[in-house]
C-alpha cells in the first residue's frame, strides 16, 4: 500500500495531500443539528450539501437532514437570492422546522451574497426563525464552521431579560464532539447539582434509537427558547478554544455573561478543570460518585502504565480534541512524537509544544495546517509505536504496520464510537482501554511463541 | 402493491403550488395501456426540497475521472471537495501488468486547498506549483486537474495552466471545468469528463494487433466492490479480450488504447453514452447496452454479445460458461429465493442501477414497485428513441457538445469491426439492438411508480404508505428508512460488500438481501414492557 510515496526528503509546499481537516460548512451543519427542530440549510450548489450529509451520516450512522439552495450556473453568476427565498418558503411549508440555520459555501461567499438582507426579504412564518452564519470554505476548517454557526446562535438568539438577578445556571458550549461526549459532560454537570443549558446539543439527535416511529426532528437538540435564555445565565463554559471561544465571547459581549474557556474535558486534568470550575463558580459539592470515578482512573493508570509508558505516539485531528489528548497521553507517560492538526492557528503549536516540553521531551514535531503526507514522511524517517486519530490514518497504519486507535472525526470504518464518550473520567478509562488493547494485541501478534503470555 | 392516485395526492398535498406543478411532471404511475408516458427529468432541482443529488464535480472527478489509477488527480478548490471524494466511492483498483504498485495513486487526496488570498488574487500560480511538486514527487503518467465552484467565478484559466504544465513536464495534464454549479446534477460532470477523455486521450495509443479476436471495452463500469473484475472473469472464460474498462481499475495507458476494440459494451448508459456515441461516429465502433446485474440479465447480455460476433465457437463457449456458472450458483440462489420470494422493494439510485437491479431482484422473486433516478435523463427512463425530442434547457445548455467526424484513418464500418459481411450485420441488427437502450420503463408494471429526483418528503411518505420490505438507496436515505422499521441496503456502496455483478455478484447480493430481511434484531424493535402495556 502507498508504494507511490516518495523516498527521502521532498518538497511539498503547495496545497494539501491527505488533509487533516475538511471545510467549514460541515461543521456548521453539525452545530445546527444540535438545535431542536432545526433544519440546516446549505446556501450553495447542492453537491456540498450532499457531501456534508453523507459524511456526517457515515460517521454517526444516523439520519442527517439538511436542505440546499441548489445553485445553477445562472444563480452563480447573478446571485442566489431567489434560490434562498424559494428554499425558505419550501422548507417551512413542506418540512415545518421551528428554525432554519443557513450556512454558506465557497460559491455563495465568492459571489458575495448578502444573507442578512436576503433573509429579511424572505417569507418566514409567524413564530419561526431563520439564522445564518457565513462559512467560507477557503478559510479555516470544519471546526471554524462549527464555531461560526455556534456564534450565530448567540448573535441571532441569545437575549438578556430585564431582570437583574442572573439565573444560577451555566451555559456549556461543548465543542465539536460526539453526542456521547455531550451526554457525559451533561451527566458530570448534573451530578454536581448545577443547572445548565448546553448548546449545541446533538444528544438524542445523532445517537437516536430505532423505534420504527421515525420523526424527522428527533427529541434532542437545544430549543430556540433555551438558546435565547443563555443570555440570562451566570456563566458560560467554552470547551475547546477553536470550537467554542468565539460564541462564548459573543455571549459575553451581547449579554454580559462571563465566559471561562476550558479544554474539552478529555483526560484527567481537563476533567478536573471542568469540575473545579463548576465547584468554584457555583459552590457545588463534588459528589462521592465523581471522586470514585476519578480514583478508578488513577488506579487504572497505575495498574496499566507498563502497557504504554514510554511508547511513542503520533496524534492527528482537530485541535480541541488533540490538545487535551496530548495532555492525557503525557499523563500516561507516553511520548507524543508527532502532533498534527489541519486546522490553522499558531496557538496550537505553542500550546502543544509547551505541554510536551514541560514533560521533558525534546524530540518532537508539532504542526498546525499539516497533512497526513507530512506525517507519513516523518514516520518513514523515524517510526512510532501507535497512531491516534480519525479513519484516514488507516492507510499509514497498514503501510507502516503501526496500530491505530480511532479517535476524533470522522470515523467511517467502525461503529459504536459516537455512542461511547472519550470525555470525563469514563472517557479516560475508555482511552486507556483502547490504547492498551491496541498495544497488547500487537504484542500478542508479534511475539515469539515462547514469549506468548497468558497474563499481561 | 401499487400506488393509487389518492395516495399520490396525499403525498403531494403539502406542496406549495409551484412545487406541486413541477413535481407532478417527475412522477409517473406506470400504465402500460398508454402508448407513451412522458416523464420530466434532468431539470433544475427545487431549492429547499431536500434532494439527494450531488454536483457536476462529483460526476466528473468522483465518478468518471477519479478511478483512473495511474494519474494523480488534483482538485483545484478549497479542501472539502477533495476530502469528501477521498476513498468514499468503492471503485477498486490494483496493480497489474500495465501498472506497477508505485504508479497507483488511488488512495491519495490531493487538493490545492485554496485560501482567501487565492480567491482574491487567483489560484493559478498555486495550482501550477502543485502540479510541479506532484510530478516531481510521484512521477505519474498523467495528471488531472478538476475545477470546483469558486474556480469558474474567479476566472482561473485551468486550460492554460494545464497546457503550460504539460509542456514543462512532457506528460499529459488534463483540465476538467467541472465546477459544481454546472448543469443540474452529477450528470453534467459525466458529460464534461467524457468530452475531455474523448478529445484528448482516447485514440492516442498504438494500433492493435490485427490477429486479436473478440476485443471489447466495458464502458461505464466503475468496479464498485469488484464488479468489473467479476465481469472480466466471465468474459475472459468465454474467450473475449477485455481491452479496457472505463474507468474501473483502469489506467491512463489503457484509455489511450480504447479505440482498439471491436465492440463497446455499455453498462452505465447515463455516464458514458457520450463516449459510446462519439466512438461510433469517430471510429465506427458499434456499442451494445448490456446488464451484468442479475442471472437472467447476464445470460441475455452474454448471448447478445456472442451474436454480435456471430462466431459458432464463441456461441458454444458462451453457453458452456452460462451452464457451468448457473449449475454452480443456482442451488444457493434458490435457498435465498425462498426468503425473498414475494417481497417488494424500492430502488432509488443515481442514473442506472435502479433499472439494472430490477433484473437481479426478479431472480430472487422480488418486485421493484417504486423506481427512480437522481439525475438520469428521459432516455434512461423512456428509451433512446426520445432523444431527438429532448430540449436542452437553460441550465444545461452551457455543457459543451462535441461534434466529431469520422477519423480518416481509423474509421471502419461497424460490420468491419465485427468481422462480418454487411448483410450479416443487417440481420444481426434485427435481432440485437445495437447502439440502443430501451430505458427502465418497459421493465415496469402497471401501478408501479417511476420517480425522478425523489426527495426526502416523497420517499418517506411512500415508505410509510406502501411499506416495502426493503429499500435500496444511498447512505443518506438508509438510516431514516431503517428508523421507520424497514431494512435498507445501500445500492451505491453495496454496504461495503460486493461484487454484485455477474454470477458471484448474484450470490453475494442474494445473501446480503436475505440477511438484511432476516437479521434477528428486527424482531426486537419493541421493548417487552411496551408490548405489555398495549
UniProtKB/TrEMBL annotation, chain A:
It comes from Methanospirillum lacunae. SUPFAM superfamilies: Helical backbone' metal receptor (SSF53807). Residues 23-439 form the Nitrogenase/oxidoreductase component domain. Belongs to the NifD/NifK/NifE/NifN family. This is Nitrogenase molybdenum-iron protein subunit beta. Keywords: Nitrogen fixation. GO terms for molecular function: nitrogenase activity. It comes from the Archaea. Pfam families: Oxidored_nitro (PF00148).
TrEMBL record, chain B:
Tetramer of two alpha and two beta chains. Forms complex with the iron protein (nitrogenase component 2). Gene3D superfamilies: Nitrogenase MoFe cofactor biosynthesis protein NifE, C-terminal (3.40.50.12380), Nitrogenase molybdenum iron protein domain (3.40.50.1980). It catalyses: N2 + 8 reduced [2Fe-2S]-[ferredoxin] + 16 ATP + 16 H2O = H2 + 8 oxidized [2Fe-2S]-[ferredoxin] + 2 NH4(+) + 16 ADP + 16 phosphate + 6 H(+). The keyword Glycoprotein does not apply. Its EC number is 1.18.6.1. SUPFAM superfamilies: Helical backbone' metal receptor. This molybdenum-iron protein is part of the nitrogenase complex that catalyzes the key enzymatic reactions in nitrogen fixation. It comes from the Archaea. Its cofactor is [7Fe-Mo-9S-C-homocitryl] cluster; [8Fe-7S] cluster. Residues 55-517 form the Nitrogenase/oxidoreductase component domain. One of its GO terms (molecular function) is ATP binding. This is Nitrogenase protein alpha chain. GO terms for cellular component: molybdenum-iron nitrogenase complex. Keywords: ATP-binding, Iron, Iron-sulfur, Metal-binding, Molybdenum, Nitrogen fixation, Nucleotide-binding, Oxidoreductase. Coiled coil: none annotated.
